[in-house]
Amino acid sequence: MKKYDLIIIGGGASGLMAGVLAKDKGLDFLIIEKNKRVGMKLGITGKGRCNLSNYITDLDTLVSKYIHNGKFLYHAFSEFNPVDTKKFFEERMNIPLKIERGNRVFPKSDRSLDVVNAFYNELEENMLLNTEVKGIEEKDGRITKVITDNGEYIADNYILATGGKTYPLTGSTGDGYSFAKSLGHTINYTYPVLVGFKCREDFVEELAGLTLKHVNISVLKDGEVYKGEFGDALFTHDGISGPIILNLSQYTYDMYEEGFEISIDLKPRVEFTELDARVNKLLRENGTTSLKNILKDLLPSSLIPVIIKLSNLDPYITGAEINKDNREKIVTLLKDLRLNITDSEGYQRAVVNTGGVDIKEVDPMTMKSKIVENLYFTGDILDLFGPTGGYNLQIAWSTAFVAVDSLS
Ligand SMILES: Cc1cc2nc3c(=O)[nH]c(=O)nc-3n(C[C@H](O)[C@H](O)[C@H](O)COP(=O)(O)OP(=O)(O)OC[C@H]3O[C@@H](n4cnc5c(N)ncnc54)[C@H](O)[C@@H]3O)c2cc1C
Fold first, then answer.
1. How far apart are the C-alpha atoms of 143 and 373, rounded to whole Å?
2. pLDDT by residue (tens digit) across 303-319?
């Protein structure tokens, strides 16, 4: 049986990066991918535009963005940072890039498929597609072979790059967790992260599709603000999602069982008293106009019936008829609209998950297993995640870099 220098299990972002680096190193390697195509998840990143990195050049600042196990990435980022990533894609992969708001790096073409195709063209001869790894055998602390539905394969070294378990239709179904477990690794409990929230309130259904721009949303814990974010959010048919919710979900992944509240400040740029004065003025200037029409000055139209219903006021009450208490009720809803969060949207819709291969059993200098001599881990399979904005693909590129770099 042919023996490769390296077998890479999984042809996603980190497996493909490892492949190109192995090729440049002159290694004889094979990428085993269960789908008919490589990079299915990579192809849907950044809403099809592939936000492939976040161009932060200061190492400490970059690491500080990773609130979960970020320190583990220190070495990987010092070896292969967003500057190296940009250079790699532009010079090695011939993909011109651009940097957008918030340091987010995208292909100039706005097409993630350009990234996938560039990898494919580079690695076509080293790929075994449509081949699912079913098991990994080990003896005396070394992997001896990989068993697939298409035969058995052997190599000196193995990279497990099978991803996490979100968007399972892309092929990331958590297979690698059971392989790693069977090889003696600890698999930490997984939860979906970077994911929308489901809520108890039925009224969100009426708001589905409404984007809230420049709002502040806080997660409340024991009645106190636990974490807040400013930006945009989007109502869904059973909850709320969008950039700030995804980032807040980094802090809430173990809170759904008990449930928690979020508070939406629809007017974060003005304090309560200032907003109250403005609303008071608006009501006085529109004394004969109905509340539902007055609110058009303050709210998107689909939110108006919801706010009126929650304030228990008659939509046809006029500006002059609204007393101080009722006015304050409205202002309170504008500053502190509450939703009771009951769950996340789950693995089907999450960008990444927490949990997975415990980093304590992996050498951060090399991504090498501390348990199995010739095994390496890259990308989402590790118990790591970053916020939205290109930070997760950066994990994939940098961990692949140190893994291949450390192979002799
Ligand atoms: C909708 C969405 C949008 C995203 N957008 C961004 C973004 O814009 N920027 C960003 O930084 N991150 C983004 N991410 C996260 C990013 O896609 C992941 O962090 C990245 O793909 C992880 O790469 P990976 O190689 O570890 O795993 P994956 O890309 O998940 O690849 C794993 C591969 O292994 C294969 N595999 C699994 N099991 C087996 C098996 N038994 N045998 C053979 N092959 C197997 C799978 O089929 C898959 O191809 C997004 C994620 C999602 C879901």
1. 8
2. 999 999 999 999 999 99
Cα(169)–Cα(197) distance, integer angstroms: 21
The pLDDT tens digits for 115-160 are 999 999 999 999 999 999 999 999 999 999 999 999 999 999 999 9
Number of domains in the chain: 3
CB-based pocket (< 6 A), ligand 1: 9-15, 32-35, 40-42, 44-46, 51, 132-133, 161-163, 166-167, 171-172, 175, 351-352, 379-380, 390-393, 396
Q: Is 119 a member of any domain?
A: yes
For residue 314, what are the domain limits?
272-337
Contacts of 141 (CB under 8 A, 6+ apart): 371, 372, 373
The string of pLDDT tens digits covering residues 191-227 is: 999 999 999 999 999 999 999 999 999 999 988 999 9
Distance between Cα 224 and ligand 1 center (Å): 36
Distance between CA atoms of residues 43 and 52, nearest Å: 11
Kindly state whether residue 342 falls inside one of the protein's structural domains.
no
User: Domain check: are 169 and 104 in the same one?
Assistant: yes
Answer whether 222's CB lies under 8 Å from 197's CB. no
- Residue nearest atom 6 of ligand 1, based on CA coordinates: 45
CA-CA-CA-CA dihedral for 129, 86, 241, 387, to nearest 10: 100
Same domain, 316 and 221: no
